Structures are given as C-alpha cells and as structure tokens.
Amino acid sequence: MLFEVWAPYARDRVELWLEGTRLPMDRHPVLEEWWAVEAEAQDGSRYGFLLDDGPLLPDPRSRRQPEGPDGPSAVVAPDAFVWRSDDWPGRGLRGAVLYELHIGTYTREGTLDAAAARLGELVELGITHVELMPVCPFPGTHGWGYEGVAPWAVHEPYGGPEALKRFVDTAHGLGLGVVLDVVHNHLGPSGNHLPSFGPYFTDTHHTPWGSAVNLDAPGSDEVRAYLLGSALAWLRDYRMDGLRLDAIHALADSRALTFLEELSAAVDGLAADLGRPLFLIAESDLCDPRTTTPREEGGLGLHAQWNDDFHHALHTALTGESRGYYADFARAPLAALAKTLGHVFFYDGTYSTFRGRTHGRPVDLDRAPAHRFLGYAQTHDQIGNRALGDRLSAQLSPGLLACAAALVLTGPFTPMLFMGEEWGASTPWQFFTDHTDPELAEAVRRGRRREFAAYGWAADDIPDPQDPATRLRSCLDRAERDREPHARLLAWHRTLIALRHEHPDLSDPDLAAVRVAYDEAARWFVFRRGEVRVAVNLGKDPAAVPLGGGPGARAARVLAAWDPTEVRTPDGDGVLRVPGESCVVLGDE
Length: 589
Prior knowledge:
alpha/beta; 8-stranded parallel β-barrel; 5-stranded antiparallel β-sheet; 25% helix; 21% strand
C-alpha cells in the first residue's frame, strides 16, 4: 500500500516505521513537501513516521490510534467492514428531531456498542437523528471529546473505527440519521503532534486555545485540505448524515473564499455524488443569518445553526437567572422569548451588555426557513459549563420541564434534546477530563476552580474534573425512566414529538407565520402555528389565557395537556384556563 505524509518541516529525510522496520521515503514526484513510499501492510499493521532524527510520530491522517494519541498509528482496511444498511437513502434536516448524545456517559460502559444497543429507545421516543459529541482520540479514557488530536480517527476506548461503523449501521437500520460533532477551531494541548510536521497552526491569530489553526497563513492550502478531507471522510466512509461544526466563530480565516464556504460546497458535491442528503450544522456565537444563507446569495451555505439566543430566553423565563450572558434576556424574559421565537435572534443589531457592543443581524423571515435554526432548552454546553453541571431538572418542577418541552418540540425551529432530558434525568452532566499529563491535569483543575470563584463558589464545591467519580456521576441512570415523575415526563415528550410528526403546521418552515402573545406579569405565553396553538403558564397560579373569541372564532380541541383533567377547551369568550406550571397544545376543530 502507499504511505504518504505532508512534512514541510522535515529537513533532509522522512522514514516510515512499519511494524519495527524503518523504510526511507522519497519526495513525492508531484506534490511539493509530500513524502511517499510503497510497503506491504495489512489491517491493523502499526506504523508511524520519523522526521530527520526525531521520535516516532503517528500519522496526521491516522484512521486508528490503538495505543492512544502518542502511540503508533494502525492501518484500517477500507473495505473490511460489511454494511448491512447499504440501501440507506439518507435523512435530511427538515422535519428532524435531534438528540445530542455523549458516548462516554450515555451508558456506564461508555462505548459505541453499548450506546448502539440503546438506540431503540430513541426510535420509540420519535427521534430522527442522533447527534454524537466528538469521537476523535484524546488523552486518557474519559472526556468530553473537544480536546481531540487526531481528526481522522476514532477514540479507541469508545471501540475505535469499526465500532463507529457498527453504531451508524445500527442507527440506519432503525431509520435514525447520525450527525457527528467535529472540531476544526482547535486541537487538544496533549498528544498533538501536528506541529512537528508542518504549519498546521499560526501565530497570525490567537484563540482561547492559543495559536489558531492555520486557515489563511502560508501553508494553509494543505491545512484546509487536511480538515476538508477529514470532514468528507466522516460523511463518505462512515456514512454520517451530517456534521455539527464546533464554534465556527473561533475559526480565524481572512481569505476571500473562506474554509466554511469551501466545506459547504464540497459537502453539497458529495451529497450529489452519493445521491443522499448531507448537511452541516454550525455552532455560532455571531447571530449572523449569513451563516446559513446559500452561497449563491452571498452566504456561507451551511445548512443550519444552533440558536443560543432562543435557549437563553427560554432559560431565563424558566429559571429567573440573570447573571453573565443571561442579563439582557432576564430584563423581560417572555418578551425575549417572543422575539426569538418569532424573529430567531434576540441580538439582531441590538446592544449586548455582556459584550459591551451591538451584536447580530436580523433574519429575513420571508427567505430563511425555520428548520435552518436549532431550538433547545438544554445542551452539553449549557449544562456542563455550569459549576455543578446541574440540569434544569435540579431546579424546576416537572410542570415547568413540561413547558420547556412544549416550547422546544412544537416551536418553529428544528428541535434538539440533550440525552436524558426526555425523562428529566436527575443525574448532572459535569465537566470531566482524564489528562495523562499531571501538570496539565492540575492546571485544568485549578482553572476550573478559579473560573467559578469569581461567581462566589468555594473551591471544594467544584467537582474535580480528573476524579473518575465526576464522570460516573454524569452517566445516565435509566432506572429513573420507570419512576415518577420521570415516566410521566417521558410520555409527555413522546406525545409532543408524535404531534410534531403528525401535524404539518408544526414542521412549517415559514417563520413569518408564527404568531406570539404573552403577559410578562401573569407569566403566560402563547403562540400559534397554523391551526395549532400552544399555551404555557410559567406561573404557580392558574392563568386565563386569551386565545381570541367572538363571532366567527373556530372551536378548539385539546391535542395534548400536561394536566388534562384540569384543562377545558376555551369558553365562548376564547379564554383558556391553564393550571399553574402547566401547558396545553390545541388544534382547531
């Protein structure tokens, strides 16, 4: 087989190390700064590269790191896996209900095979796509995955590349699409050997993680090709249906043709070649509709983006929190919720006190379809980046959790749940690491405590990221699913998702058609999508919610209610009585 490597930092020679044998590599006859050699190898053969007199380094394009990021790479035969779901037609984003899942804590086993065995639960729930948090190799066994260092490979403790293919194959066999979270804006600080090979990073820009990934400085053509090839490999070789792109606002890229445009064009081209839909979902802090505007209209051409503004508005309405980036939303939380539900972004050219400047840009409601924006009440970020990793279930009543579910699952955006949210899981989801470098482990521990000391937390109250118990506390407890109030919440989520699939109005992409009303003081909120109306009462006392009555008003029927015995259809005056901390979904007769 042909072994190749881009190594512009090699002065005189590059050698292939293959199962203990060193073979000199030749300069590539066509590709500048590339080295190549033909050698006999088979699936599982260990190999690596030696530059000049340096140590053995793993392949930057390694598909498998069986001994971790610092060990040799292993050959992965491209045709060794036999797919059962060869006729998978793909599953697009419109009409989707996503489920964010972390392999290491979805089950206590923390493996892809263990997670795959539980996918039937998501089919019963009504989920259409599983969104996997990053699976690339990182030091140690357990971690969030955002410090991965080998963007072409699969974390070995999760099961490696074969296990990921088995997971995708199982999901597709059940009718589930699979989305993978990928990180292009940085690599982890430990086990990252790319700087030995070439200018993968640049000091032209600086990020919270140090030197930026090189997308626009000298040598960036090869770096962009490296990341582009990795992204396409997940979609092509692992048959993913989409990718979630982590923190695209942290991609420093000053070139006229940005990396994101190049990536979106390549993904659209691959979708055409494969004959199945593929999509890219951006995590972005920019509140910029150009992220998902088609390329031919001057946008980046990504297919969807997370909407944190909707989350922040919903969170403050539910909890009353007002610190940090919640401050602007907390001044009038229902007004903020109404703005985001009807206009997508809260910051659309308005002032942000958290940033100290104006922020964002308006969305053209007549041109931007609703499914291009993801709506959610909880994510790994919004739970795990809290001091104790506490979920909404730690501070809200089951009724308010039901209200959150109604607003997410019947709202205009593509809904997404975080694993365990559907039954109001009581387990936290905390920040945990498994760094093998003692100095880095201590630095992370101190940094976490220092971060939350500014908010008044005592150091001893902050979970130690390196303690294995922190990860174990974060594993889901499925025994809760059969106990109250968890079983009732699980049934409620199933009902709402079924309504979303059954009623075309709930998947209508027309943002301009959303109608919203609310009473900040009385704490009720109602919105209409076609013939479906959703009323939530976030207050403790019953609320009289006006839906509009009088001559010519159409009668309504209850499609779903958190407290069905306490709800009556609207009186002749069009007023709906909603119990405290409860919600109702209505349809026209």
